[in-house]
Write a structure and sequence with these properties.
Blueprint (H helix, E strand, L loop, with lengths): L1 H15 L5 H5 L17 H6 L4 E2 L2 E2 L11 H10 L20 H6 L3 E7 L2 E6 L2 E5 L28 E3 L10 H5 L6 E5 L3 H7 L4 E4 L4 E3 L4 E5 L20 E5 L5 E4 L9 H4 L7 E5 L6 H4 L6 H11 L3 E5 L13 H12 L13 E4 L1
Parallel strand pairs: 5-6, 6-7, 7-8, 12-13, 13-14
Antiparallel strand pairs: 1-2, 3-4, 3-15, 4-5, 9-10, 10-11, 11-12
Helix pairs in contact: 1-4, 10-11
Length: 359
């Protein structure tokens, strides 16, 4: 059963990480040291305006390195190679998530609640935004280390659900089905079939740098160095991916990275706005030879945080599913070390699952 589960994990991971990591070590020239395609000062806004990320029936990643066949390498990695963190894997804690929602409901300003994995609830005065809702395990062979220990009916009802991309740990049909089907969904382009399956037809689809404004707050969809896939037979990048910039009605401006690898364009994302809180996804970053084209590690997260010039930093995408080599509870400690080396610890908002940060 263990080998079967590992093999199934490999199949899943072949969908969750790009089939391009081989280029990091095998291709001569700049790509031998970089796991992204440098922008070299090119404007992301101009690239988006020209829609160079739109291909024929597929989306393209201007920051991504070329994709090559990766499945057998993934299988070899999961079945035959030693995990450098193997001695720590038995220590991964199961941390049930209990949340007292009453203080969140009573707060009149802006609050940010880290529920689990990449699921974050932002309460902006009387409006509730829910990002990438995943309330349960995504596959039976992927252990959930942060099971919910509260009734979903007690959670503030979301007015807007924001989806960053279509990987299964971010767009989960079962979790969406637990919400009111009339809930407004903001998503990237290309997910009509997924939301038709959930019965959620009240939708706004955004391309990079497009906005949604409900009259009180503005939500902008931003580029990210990532990719998307639901079905390996159909193939990758049939739908778009990205992050969000949220100008709240309550005052703070919040950046949500979504899944992203590092690239040399973070300063462009927030060049015309001051960011109060940056929420970076930081998990599944080891081993670097494999994960670097998809996810940032702690030092890259700190670098990106400095480049967008945000006032405060929190992280998500950790603690729930072990999708990389590192144990699920390692990211906060690794980030603390990286922030300490740069003298930035005072800017960290160290939220654990189920905790809320209030403005």
């Amino acid at each position: 059963m263990g080998k079967l589960a590992t093999a199934l994990k490999a199949v899943l991971l072949a969908q969750l990480v790009p089939r391009s990591a081989k280029a990091i070590t095998d291709t001569p020239g700049p790509s031998a040291t970089l796991h992204y395609r440098p922008l070299n000062g090119d404007s992301l806004r101009e690239m988006a305006r020209r829609k160079i990320h739109h291909g024929p029936n597929v989306f393209l990643n201007p920051m991504g390195i070329p994709r090559n066949g990766r499945f057998w390498q993934v299988l070899s990695w999961k079945l035959f190679h030693k995990n450098a963190y193997a001695d720590f894997l038995d220590d991964q804690p199961i941390s049930p998530v209990s949340i007292d929602w009453e203080p969140v409901k009573a707060h009149r300003g802006v609050s940010v609640t880290f529920i689990k994995h990449s699921t974050v609830l932002i309460k902006d005065k009387d409006c509730v935004l829910l990002i990438d809702p995943v309330f349960n395990e995504i596959f039976w062979f992927i252990k959930d280390y942060t099971p919910l220990a509260f009734n979903l009916d007690d959670m503030p009802k979301p007015d807007h659900v924001l989806i960053t991309h279509g990987h299964y740990d971010h767009l989960d049909h079962r979790s969406l089905a637990a919400l009111d089907p009339g809930t407004h969904v903001i998503s990237p382009l290309g997910y009509n079939g997924e939301f038709k399956a959930t019965g959620m037809s009240h939708r706004t689809q955004l391309d990079w740098f497009e906005h949604y404004n409900d009259g009180a707050r503005e939500i902008t969809f931003l580029p990210a160095n990532h990719w998307s896939m639901r079905n390996p037979i159909i193939g990758p990048n049939r739908s778009l991916w990205g992050g969000y910039l949220i100008k709240t009605a309550g005052g703070p401006t919040i950046y949500v990275s979504g899944d992203t690898a590092y690239f040399d364009g973070f300063e462009q994302l927030t060049a015309d706005v001051d960011i109060d809180l940056a929420i970076f996804n930081m998990g599944a970053y080891a081993p670097r030879w494999f994960m670097a084209p998809s996810h940032m590690n702690p030092s890259e997260t700190v670098q990106a945080f400095q480049e967008i010039k945000a006032r405060q930093l929190m992280i998500a995408h950790w603690g729930t599913f072990q999708l990389g080599d590192e144990p699920v509870h390692f990211p906060p400690a690794d980030l603390k070390k990286a922030l300490g080396e740069k003298g930035l610890l005072r800017q960290w908002v160290p939220l654990n699952h189920g905790e809320t940060f209030y403005y």
